[in-house]
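Researcher: Here's a chain I'd like modeled. Treat it as a single chain, no partners, no ligands.
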Amino acid sequence: MVSRKKLKGKARKAAKAESAAGVRDVELSLYMSKRLRLRLTGDTGGGCTHGWNHTKYPDDHDCNKFIGGVFRIFVESTKSGDTAGLAVSEAVSFTRDMFPNVWSDSASLEWIAAAFISLGTFTSIIEGDVFLCAAAMGFSESLKQHVAFYHVGSQPLMYTAKIDDLLWAEERRTISYLKKRIPCKCLNEKYKAVRSLPKMYTCCNITSCSLPDNSVNLSAMMSCGGCRRIHYCSEECQSANWEEHRDVCKKWRKWNAENCSK
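Model: Modeled as a single isolated chain. Structure tokens:
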């Protein structure tokens, strides 16, 4: 039987190791934040931050640590071959644990969302990194959805279908989304080059849709007749996804009835 003294010693060691890991996470997050800002404002980035005020907070502010932590996860996910969706989920989980104070402040989240729109724009122009661009857009939209639902109350729940669509978006959709969210003209030429491509969206039956990448032409897309927020490539996919969508549909229908008719 292990003595109480040894148990206490093990507990202290575990707590010390956890504390040290937390310090390393913070230090690495600060380093990655600086790397990201240098990447966006340096010569390769053209000096444009695409509307993001990167000097708003000091280097050691939690918002910059938050950004660095997410950027680190994205870089590591690229190396390990994870999907953009998995990287975004991991980033959300990590930052909720490490920076609950940031998640509780809508202004901070809006600023961070702008940072990842800037990163998405940079990668689409300079690097052509599809994974990093998709992860940046998906994470930015996740923050926007969080603010709209939890802070502002302008929608009845997180609009996850929109986030999923961005994670799977093809080039035209990607450039169009980013272009609408930046005040500069950095994506104008890029948009001209892709605007003639077909508008493709993602079927919301993510788990069993038979189409490649769940992608369907917008003109062929079908909307849920109840909530008008979820879209499918066919009636078969809508039926297959109904059990998962049922509760979401009810919430959107109730919210639409109470707010959209005013």
